[in-house]
Amino acid sequence: MKNEEIRKELDEARQAVGGMELTGHSNTLDAWLRAAKACVSVAEKDLAEEHVWEIPSLAKEFMQYAEPLEGYDHLLNELYCAVRRISDTVFEHPRIKLRLLEFRLLIVNRIECMTGYELSESEDLTEEIYGYSRKIALADKGELDNMETVTDGYGRDPIEWTQRWEEVVDEANKETFAALADTPRTPGFCVRFWQERAKILSTRFALTWRTPVEINPDKKFEYEKYPFIAC
């Protein structure tokens, strides 16, 4: 689907569920599932177009539609696919990511109960949720020095787990991409992006953020590690 069609689908899905009470009837279930899946499609499009600041609100909206559908067994497979896809679009918002992971685990557990089989993903999700929960708890207590923030061999600034970070990072990303709109997306773009964002976070939001280059001076950065920017 084209960009305009994807966004039109979400607008129409929103209108369809507006004021609608969710019942067990197929027409209401289909409407809510349609809205949830439309959020996923738009989020994926926003990620591809570097409109990452729009994704967190879409993830929250997705949960509004998806969570009430969890009790319907015949929708579990579609819900699982949807929450997995939208989880892959959320970056730099650990609290939103945690909520999505918890919902994904709930769906996996429901599928396990329904089928009578244990899924290996359940253990992986449980471990990931524990890691997110622990880091968020440490950040909320201001214990950033006690936090392990190395992933796949790359360290990140612990401030990225704070509530303040999540409050400002979307606007900072929006302003950064605007400032670099004419900058070619060459392999070194990520370094320019991080430098510009650090400046914006400092001057606009009084937030000191150490870039991945500062924390990992001997590392090379690959696109796969930071998929929402061309690196």
Helix content: 55-70%
Ranges with pLDDT <50 over ≥5 residues? none
* Strand order, sheet with most strands: 1-2
The major β-sheet equals:
2 strands, antiparallel
Which value, in Å, is the CA radius of gyration? Answer: 19 Å
Summarize the structure.
With 231 residues, the protein is mainly alpha-helical. The protein has helices at residues 3-17, 26-48, 55-66, 76-87, 94-115, 120-140, 163-179, 189-205, 212-215; strands spanning 150-151, 154-155.
Can you offer a commentary on this structure?
The chain has 231 residues and is mainly alpha-helical. The protein has 2 domains: 144 residues; 69 residues, no CATH class. The chain has 9 helices and 2 strands, in the order ααααααββααα. The chain has a two-stranded antiparallel sheet. The longest helix has 23 residues. The protein is globular and about 55 Å long.
